Amino acid sequence: MKNIGVIGYSGNTESTPIREIAELCLKLGQELGKRYTVFTGGRNGVMELVSKGVKSVGGFCVGVLPWEGEDANEFNDLVVKTGLDFQMRSFVLVKSVDAVVSIGGEIGTALEILASYANGKPVILLRGTGGWTDRIATVLIDGKYLDNRKLSEVYQAWSVDEVIDILDSILR
Questions:
Q1: Is the model's pLDDT at 29 over the cut of 90?
Q2: Which of 3, 54, 105, 150 could link 61 by a cystine bridge, Cβ 3.0 to 4.6 Å?
Q3: Which residues pair with 157 in a beta bridge?
Q4: Residues facing 100 on adjacent strands
Q5: pLDDT at res. 1
Q6: CA dist 61 → 51, 137, 167 (Å)
Q7: Which long-range contacts (CB under 8 A, 24 or more apart) does 62-70 make?
Q8: 69 pLDDT band (50/70/90 cuts)?
Q9: How do strand 78-81 and strand 60-65 relate by DSSP bridges?
Q10: Three-class SS of the chain
Q11: How many beta carbons lie within 10 A of that of residue 33, not counting itself?
Q12: Nearest 5°: CA angle at 106, between 140 and 147?
């Protein structure tokens, strides 16, 4: 089974901007959980909602946490307590997956997008979710690369169904 990383906003799921994309995150988790092992940063926000969706369909979710992992969400099936700071934890997550889906996000998400690309991991931007997921799309070379080396394609999807279609096509 392939491993898919999901990155995005952290924070309270009842607060803006996470509240506005909560249903989308749950649906993404459900669809990924039916097909893949899902890796997240294991905490709150997008990570929690996606993990909840994965769990609701009997999928398996791995939370890769910073420090000692004391703030893991309840929907992780396995918690990896890296002992590392937030940035270094992100590299553990990226190295553990076959592709990454990005939803919104602040600077940590931007770092994870760049780390994924630098490590040759396909990235799918779930557009319309704000943050760095939408911002980074404006700098893509030929609409799909982050630099002239063209290390890995950055895909753009506008729905959960499109995300699944892209994953199905690139992970065959």
A1: yes
A2: 54
A3: 126
A4: 5, 123
A5: 87
A6: 6, 27, 17
A7: 62/3, 62/37, 62/38, 62/96, 63/39, 64/39, 64/40, 64/89, 64/92, 64/93, 64/96, 65/41, 65/89, 66/41, 69/42
A8: confident
A9: parallel
A10: CCEEEEEECCCCCCCCCCHHHHHHHHHHHHHHHCCCEEEECCCCCHHHHHHHHHHHCCCEEEEEECCCCCCCCCCCCEEEECCCCHHHHHHHHHHCCCEEEEECCCHHHHHHHHHHHHCCCCEEEECCCCHHHHHHHHHCECCCECCCCCCCCEEEECCHHHHHHHHHHHCC
A11: 23
A12: 20
Whether pLDDT at 172 is above 90 = no
The type of residue at 90 is S
Query: Using N-to-C axis directions, what is the helix angle for 86-95 and 107-118, rounded to 10°?
Result: 40
The sheet carrying 37-40 orders its strands as 78-81, 60-65, 37-40, 3-8, 99-103, 123-126, 154-157
Query: Within 10 A of 44 (CB to CB), how many other CB atoms are there?
Result: 18
